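Hi R.,

Here's the chain you asked about this morning:
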Amino acid sequence: MDWLEEELKQALARTEPDPGFESRVRRRQVKTMPRWIGIAATLVVGIAAAEGYRWHQGQVAKEQVMMAMRIAGDRLNRVQTQLVRGTRQ
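And the predicted structure, written out as tokens:
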């Protein structure tokens, strides 16, 4: 083996962890983030998504109302035009 392979073998060799390693890791896991923060974040995202969907539904309803108004306006204009033509004759 050349020297590089030997160094890699030593560097990647399995070693036992230091005493107390497990307790230090467990302590860090407990301190990382309380559960309520995760729950609160989930609620915020859920509420924001619901509001976004509600806004989208409002936009769809608005477009439908505007289309209905255009159709009604066109029909009213036709009727009005026919009435004007009828009174001229």
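Residues 3-88 form one domain.

Let me know if you need anything else.
M.
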